[in-house]
Design brief:
globular, about 325 residues, 6-stranded mixed sheet, alpha/beta, Rossmann fold
Length: about 325
């Protein structure tokens, strides 16, 4: 992708491709903080939905952490923009006592918890966030600095369970994960839509900020955001493949172990008496159907140690 393409606004056709997978979803929660990325998410989703006769109900949700004096004004600005775009809006606030210095992880956990609550209230199963290609690259570098393994270096998935969402299954989706941040800013500038510039994103105390400042130098060496995101995709694909292979081997070992245990039990019973052998074979068939025979009918004392003894307690 050339420098000109990286700064080109996201077209209506591209937006359609990004959001069409959600065409049949009843409700979509859009996590909008007011920054350029989430504001672009709100604008693109609203335009996509407006161009459709049928589609999901959109609900923009702004989390006010209450950590900055400007946060309430920013939430109100998002509400005005959402109203202008024809999207309902809700502000949820992080209430309660907070530490004097709140970590980014604590704020992120509070944000996910509040987004999950808003999704449950709206009976929505999908929360869309505006993580971009640049965020993915920064995440890869952060994980590398912490010595993460293959699963960690896979960074962010396009869709994953929403953390701290409770019992209801809510999916966190990142439709803009392959879109550079520069293109989202260009999209807003082209549409004449203002956005919030959060000064905390330039605070050098945060690791992500320091890595963000190092990105131009890495890009000159060939390690730009698309290259780092490609590494994450390949590692994530390799990790899924390895997990699938491990699961298949584990399943095969369980089946082999079960067969051996069943054969030994039948052989031991046969050595005691023909009647016991018949009962053991019957119990083995029940075991293969995943129903312990002692749960349905208590066997005679002669085979108690085989049907309802240690092997069943280990298995179940």
């Amino acid at each position: 992708m050339s420098a000109a393409d990286e700064a080109a606004p996201v077209s209506a056709a591209e937006a359609k491709t990004l959001f069409t997978p959600f065409a049949d979803v009843p409700t979509l929660i859009l996590a909008v903080s007011g920054g350029p990325d989430s504001t672009a998410l709100l604008m693109l989703a609203a335009r996509w939905r407006k161009a459709r006769k049928y589609g999901p109900r959109l609900l923009a949700v702004t989390v006010d952490h209450g950590l900055r004096r400007e946060s309430a004004d920013e939430a109100r600005a998002v509400k005005r923009l959402a109203r202008r775009l024809g999207v309902p809006h809700r502000t949820v606030r992080w209430r309660g006592k907070k530490a004097q210095r709140v970590s980014q992880q604590a704020a992120r956990q509070a944000r996910y918890r509040l987004l999950g609550g808003a999704a449950r209230a709206a009976k929505a199963r999908h929360v869309l966030t505006a993580h971009t290609l640049d965020d993915q690259a920064e995440t890869v570098l952060m994980r590398m600095s912490r010595g993460s393994g293959v699963s960690g270096l896979g960074a962010m998935a396009r869709a994953s369970p929403l953390p701290l969402s409770g019992e209801q299954a809510i999916e966190l989706v990142r439709p803009l994960l392959d879109v550079p941040k520069a293109r989202l800013i260009a999209t807003l500038q082209h549409a004449g839509i203002a956005f919030v510039d959060d000064a905390s994103n330039r605070d050098p105390r945060f690791t992500r900020t320091r890595l963000r400042e190092a990105m131009p130098a890495l890009a000159r060496a060939g390690l730009d955001a698309p290259a780092l995101a490609l590494v994450a995709r390949r590692l994530r694909r390799a990790y899924r493949k390895r997990r699938g292979a491990n699961a298949a081997r584990s399943c095969s070992r369980r089946k082999s172990s079960a067969g051996l245990r069943t054969r030994l039990r039948c052989a031991f019973s046969a050595a005691r008496s023909p009647a016991s052998a018949t009962r053991a074979r019957s119990n083995s068939a029940n075991w293969r159907r995943s129903t312990p025979p002692c749960a349905a009918k208590k066997p005679p004392p002669a085979v108690t140690s085989f049907a309802c003894g240690e092997p069943w307690r280990e298995r179940w």
